[in-house]
Specification:
Number of helices: 17
GO molecular function: ligase activity
Membrane topology: Multi-pass membrane protein
Structural class: mainly alpha
Organism: Aporhodopirellula aestuarii
Number of strands: 4
Mean pLDDT: 81
InterPro entries: O-antigen_ligase-rel_domated, WaaL-like
Largest sheet: 2 strands, antiparallel
Helix content: 55-70%
Protein name: O-antigen ligase family protein
Order of helices and strands: HEEHHHHHHHHHHHHHEEHHH
Distance between the termini: 34 Å
Shape: globular
Length: 468
């Protein structure tokens, strides 16, 4: 297929979307229908992460399982097998898609990283864990690949982000209800966590805030009109779970998004209202007694009963990182196997033995897949990001998607400093990552096609600033 033919087909698909033509076919389904299998996989994967409590938590803290362990295990198996079936059907049906080769080339380093993860099972100390986790990651990469093929415009992004926002909101609401109604199952708790770890819940709610704000500020989506209820629910999860990093990162990135995209009249009104409130407060409480009481309460929440030594070591992460760094040098090039952070598969940290995650994105990649794996992973994400940066101005109806990808990527960057992020256990944040990769890859590939088509035509359109 020539560049001009490929460009013509992609232009047809884009115009079909803008005109609302649902009868145009790609593969074995109409254009508009291809988003539905993606949404089904997203929902299944987001809700496939419920787990029974570990044995020592059940004996030490009395944590109970909300459902029999066999049922929860069956849920994980069923959702993954179903997702593999749906995605396999999509891959075969879309094999002759005109965008296929470009998407594969753009995602090639990430595909190599996934293949390397499968290869690392051979030298892993716990092959069962490595195989299960790398299969989950492979599902996410294939999901991103399918999104990259069928994505057409901001309209598709809005639909996917709407489902992410709704799914994350319902998950947050469910966890809050379980936390207060059935405290024995350990929802939103740290030491005695059971059905859903507090860290995973915090990342899900942090991303729920970002996605909902993006829908409100960038798309003005009808679903986002319920933003006060949605954000209040996510904030409650963040406070109950007690994850200070998620509160900090989410707050900073959300403020940046509001500052960039909120209506100027709203911002001016907000600044005026805050000024009036602060002035009135100073008149009523000139000695700032109430302010100091609130500050003390915030300080108590921030400390969470920890000593200065514990806080200075980032809640014990200094000990974790020291041991992980030492473990990395046991196999610096190859790593210990996907999702396995030591040569024996068990490490003694925080007075417990286990296959700990590194609680840092970079260390997690280094210890598990070595320098080779980290290089492939960083190259893969960077190659897609570079294509998005170079091309987003040239693809019609992609500016909102690009802005959403940019802000959520900032959130991931901050979150990954103290957590394993999307290369840790499968979690809702992994599904969001997959969507971002798919949309970013599609924009980068469409821009490359247009660039070459314009070069053949001998003309390029004016690349003016993008307005939202």
């Amino acid at each position: 297929m020539t560049i001009s033919q490929e460009h013509a087909i992609i232009e047809h698909l884009s115009h079909a979307d803008q005109a609302g033509e649902k009868n145009a076919w790609v593969g074995s389904l109409p254009i508009a229908a291809w988003i539905s299998p993606i949404l089904i996989c997203m929902w299944m994967l987001m809700y496939s992460t419920f787990s029974p409590p570990e044995d020592y938590k059940a004996s030490q803290y009395g944590t109970k399982s909300i459902l029999p362990a066999s049922v929860l295990s069956l849920n994980k198996l069923t959702t993954r097998v179903t997702a593999i079936g749906i995605l396999s059907f999509a891959v075969l049906s879309l094999w002759k898609h005109p965008r296929r080769d470009r998407v594969l080339r753009r995602m090639f380093p990430l595909i190599l990283f996934t293949m390397y993860g499968f290869a690392s099972v051979a030298w892993s100390a716990d092959r069962g864990i490595s195989l299960k986790q790398v299969i989950s990651f492979a599902i996410l990469i294939v999901l991103g690949y399918i999104i990259a093929l069928v994505w057409r415009s901001d309209r598709d992004s809005e639909r996917m982000f709407f489902h992410l926002s709704m799914g994350l909101f319902l998950l947050a609401l469910l966890l809050l209800i379980i936390h207060f109604a059935i405290p024995s199952v350990g929802a939103l708790t740290k030491r005695s966590s059971g059905i859903f770890h507090s860290t995973s819940a915090s990342s899900a709610s942090g991303l729920g805030v970002m996605v909902t704000l993006g829908l409100r500020l960038l798309w003005n989506s009808r679903w986002s009109r319920f933003w006060p209820l949605i954000l209040a629910t996510h904030l409650a999860v963040l406070l109950v779970a007690g994850n200070r990093l998620s509160v900090l990162i989410t707050g900073l990135v959300a403020l940046a998004m509001i500052a960039c995209y909120a209506h100027r009249g709203f911002l001016a009104g907000a600044v005026l209202a805050v000024s009036i409130i602060v002035t009135g407060y100073l008149v009523v409480d000139a000695r700032l007694d109430g302010f100091y009481e609130v500050a003390d309460s915030v300080g108590i929440y921030a400390k969470q009963g920890q000593s200065k030594k514990e806080l200075s070591s980032l809640s014990g992460r200094e000990e974790m990182w020291t041991k992980m760094w030492k473990s990395y040098w046991d196999s610096p090039l190859l790593g210990h196997g996907y999702f396995v952070t030591s040569k024996t598969g068990r490490m003694y940290v925080w007075y417990e033995w286990g296959n700990w995650t590194a609680h840092n994105f970079w260390l997690q990649a280094l210890t598990t897949t070595g320098a080779i794996g980290l290089s492939l992973l960083v190259t893969g994400i960077g190659w897609i990001g570079l294509g998005l940066y170079r091309g987003y101005r040239q693809v019609a109806n992609s500016s909102r998607s690009t802005a959403m990808i940019g802000f959520i990527s900032l959130w991931y960057f901050g979150w990954g400093f103290l957590n394993s992020s999307f290369i840790g256990p499968l979690a809702p944040e992994s599904v969001v990552f997959s969507v971002l990769i798919g949309v970013a890859t599609s924009i980068a590939c469409q821009a490359a096609v247009q660039n070459q088509a314009w070069t053949l035509d001998g003309a390029r359109p004016n690349r003016g600033p993008v307005t939202l």
